[in-house]
Amino acid sequence: MLDLPLPILAFLFGILSILTPCVLPVIPVIAAYAAKAGKFVPIALVSGLSISFVVMGIVASTFGQIMSAFNDLLHHLAGLIMVIMGLYILFEEHLSPLLMKVPSNGIFDRLRANVGGEINGAGGGFLLGLTLGVVWVPCIGPMLGSILAMVAADAEFMYGSLLLLLYSAGMAIPFLAIAYGSNASVNRIKGLSSHLPAIKMLSGIVLILAGIYFGLGI
To answer: What is the pTM assigned to this prediction?
Structure first.
């Protein structure tokens, strides 16, 4: 049975993931690039992105089923992981440089190199989405890792897939709004860059509270 706050959290985590410092700056560029390649390319791209996350969710669910005998422990562990990820986000700047986020400079150029100089229709957009799902893992790790931890703890394929789809929707909606929106909407998204420190703090607090809620079953 669905636990209502978790689907809401999954969707919120998706939105917060796209607002991370190494994802948000390249979103307008990738969205514009995809929109110019074809009318349905942005949709194909977010479809590929969603499938990459759902596959990760299936793997997490499989692990949870294998470890089903330790279900209570998995719930506590998942909550602990979420709290640690939240603390990591809040205190990232004070950690060792080896643990700092992966720089986003040149990420779009590397993506283009992986899929070719141009997106070849919807198929190319889908491939780019799959690639983004992997390339962005270091950037969205705290949020995505927390969702996967919840999925592993619940160990239900359908529920886990739903959470990952909602997470993907949280990332896809802003992306599609930029790809199909006006210049004004793009400028508004770019304007969020000045609020990234506050968004980052909010993300950390949300993760910590969600971890306490999930781990303790409050």
So the answer is: 0.79
